Amino acid sequence: MTLLTHERYCDELIRETGLLRAVLAGADLSVTVPTCPDWNLGDLVRHVGAAHRWAEIIVRTKSLVEVPDDDVPGVPGPGNDEPAALEAWLAEGADLLAATLREAGPDAESWTWAWEQRAGFWARRMVHETVIHRADAASAAAVPFETDPEVAADTVDEWLQIVAFSAACGDPEAQELRGAGRSIHLHATDAPGVDAEWLIEFGDEGFTWRRGHEKANVALRGPLSDVLQVFYRRLPSDSERVEVLGDAGLLDFWLARASFA
User: Any idea where the Mycothiol-dependent maleylpyruvate isomerase metal-binding domain is (predicted)?
Assistant: First the structure.
């Protein structure tokens, strides 16, 4: 696995936020988000904007402990769901975060909830947070979703790390992703020049993964943006936009237990 550069993550944060803002243009912010049914589109935008500001203050203050939401300036966002105000607030937060990340550099010490304690974690995490929630927004607004192939592939890699981390931290569902002799292959059909295939192998102690084209018990094939959405549980595995070959039950077993605990 090769990470994108820190500068690339900062650039993609701005680009992905701009694409999310474009989804909002003319959209009904009161519509329910099908993939996050407890939220409407306005709620989703506020969640993303708040996450950007939360990560920004952690990095900027060099905090080594979690920062409470109440200590983050601007987290509530504008007082109404007027689209122009929400768009401006969202853009401002992304700009602030990117600037802070660039100034800090990837190796600056920083609290995170995960496997590394450095600012580079937040650069990567906030790009993928924005990518996935843009997919949610696109679903709510009934518009197409696509993203840069290198970013999408890195989003898959990070999700595998998150699920493995959840299992290591004791999440009971993620810990069920074990059992030697079973494997899953992810195969993007539209990403020339990008290594966008993965083999996930179950073992007695958990699972491992690597990029590559190898046979497995089940294969999930389709455009990379759609494979990503299925793998992140944003599209059902029986969507006509992807193809499942082999043991579909094993893929569903994974999808039911892969969590962000």
Answer: 12-138
